[in-house]
């Protein structure tokens, strides 16, 4: 099959195909046959590189989260800019939120792949907000871990549930700008930065 001479290129094609497949169908509905066909890769090669379907899903989601972290570093000192970058990232990469929603539906409260690494990553994000609160850059309105969760939810929900955004907020550019400003205002209030905005 194409790409067997370049393992890294093959892995990249598999990751891209798997991301699209899992975002569209979740773990249970995804098919390794379709991923292999789209990636122009051998099915056995997918299992050899990534393990079973659940392991592949975990690796795909982990990579998507790493990409988000690299593209949108935490910036507690400027909630407006942080919210803007999160909104823009999710609009450009809606598959990440779909993967997270599928993960929640299919794993529920059970332990998920890469859970310990992800907890550590989220603790590091919360620590940035905690430091900003301790240094007085942000007011300690809410616990830092709650801030990370709430700001992430505010910035991502519009892309995660576009039908609700369309029905509640509207579809025009003016509607999008109004919603973005509302999310910025909420983030400033949650971080105690409203007075300095």
UniProtKB/TrEMBL annotation:
Signal peptide: none annotated. Residues 8-68 form the HTH tetR-type domain. Residues 31-50 bind DNA. Keywords: DNA-binding. Pfam families: TetR_C_21 (PF17926), TetR_N (PF00440). PANTHER family: HTH-TYPE TRANSCRIPTIONAL REPRESSOR SCO4008 (PTHR30328:SF54), TRANSCRIPTIONAL REPRESSOR (PTHR30328). This is TetR family transcriptional regulator.
């Amino acid at each position: 099959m194409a790409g067997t001479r370049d393992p890294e290129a093959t892995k990249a094609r598999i990751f891209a195909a798997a991301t699209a497949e899992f975002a569209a169908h979740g773990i249970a509905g995804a098919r390794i046959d379709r991923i292999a066909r789209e990636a122009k890769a051998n099915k056995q090669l997918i299992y050899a590189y990534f393990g079973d379907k659940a392991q592949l899903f975990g690796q795909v989601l982990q990579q998507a989260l790493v990409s988000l972290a690299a593209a949108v570093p935490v910036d507690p000192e400027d909630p407006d800019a942080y919210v803007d970058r999160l909104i823009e990232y999710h609009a450009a990469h809606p598959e990440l939120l779909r993967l997270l929603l599928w993960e929640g539906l299919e794993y529920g409260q059970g332990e998920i792949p890469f859970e310990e690494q992800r907890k550590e990553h989220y603790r590091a994000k919360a620590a940035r907000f905690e430091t900003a609160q301790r240094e007085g850059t942000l007011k300690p309105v809410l616990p830092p871990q709650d801030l990370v969760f709430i700001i992430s939810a505010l910035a991502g929900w519009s892309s995660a549930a576009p039908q609700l955004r369309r029905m509640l907020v509207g579809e025009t550019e003016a509607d999008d700008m109004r919603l973005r400003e509302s999310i910025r205002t909420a983030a400033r209030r949650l971080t105690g930065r409203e007075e300095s905005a």
